[in-house]
Predict the 3D structure of the following.
Amino acid sequence: RKEVEQDPGPFNVPEGATVAFNCTYSNSASQSFFWYRQDCRKEPKLLMSVYSSGNEDGRFTAQLNRASQYISLLIRDSKLSDSATYLCVVKPVTGTYKYIFGTGTRLKVLA
Amino acid sequence: EAQVTQNPRYLITVTGKKLTVTCSQNMNHEYMSWYRQDPGLGLRQIYYSMNVEVTDKGDVPEGYKVSRKEKRNFPLILESPSPNQTSLYFCASSRSPLQEPPLHFGNGTRLTVT
C-alpha cells in the first residue's frame, strides 16, 4: 500500500460546480498535512495547510479525518483557473524531515 | 522577492557527462531538498539537507550527489548521468521542518539524458 494515495482523475467538472478530492495516508502517526497545486509540470505551490479542526480559504475547504486516515479538499464554485493537479502532502512524523507526496489528482474545469 | 532559484530550466546531455543543477534560496531557510517527478510516481525525494554541511539520503539517492557548503545553495550533482535519470527535478526549501512549515519549490529543471 502506498503511503499516500490519491485518485489520479481526471475530474472533469463544469464551471460553478463543487468538487471534492480525498487523499488517504497509511501512517496513523502522521502529523502535518498540506494541499499543493501544480500547473502543467510547473513547480508545486502551497494551496493550504490542513488543520485538525478543518480550515477554509475562500472557495477552498480542507478537512482531516484521523479516524479514517484521510484528508479532503473541497472546491466550491469552480473556476476555469482551478484546472490543475492537486497534490496531497503528508509529513509522517513530527521531528523528521520527510514529506510524502501523493501522485496528484487532476482537475479540469470546463466552460 | 522570496524565492528558490534553479538553473538551468532545461538541460539535454549525453550519458556519462557530469552535470550540476544549481539551487539557491534567499529566505535563510535551514532545510533544503531535491525531488524528482516522474509520471505516475509523484515527487520522490533524492537528498535533503537540514543545515550547512548536514545532508542525508532520501528515497532515490543512487546516481546523485549533493553538497551544502553555504546555507543558501544546495547543488545537485550527477557524476555520470544515465537515461533513467531523465526527469523533472525540483529543489525545495523550508524553515526548520521541526516547526512543520510548508515547502517552497524552485521552478524546476527538465533533464533529458540521451
Summary: The interface with chain A takes residues 31, 33, 35, 37, 40-45, 48, 50, 56, 58, 88, 90, 97-98, 100, 102-108, 110 of chain B (CB under 8 Å). The first strand of chain B starts at residue 4 and ends at 7.
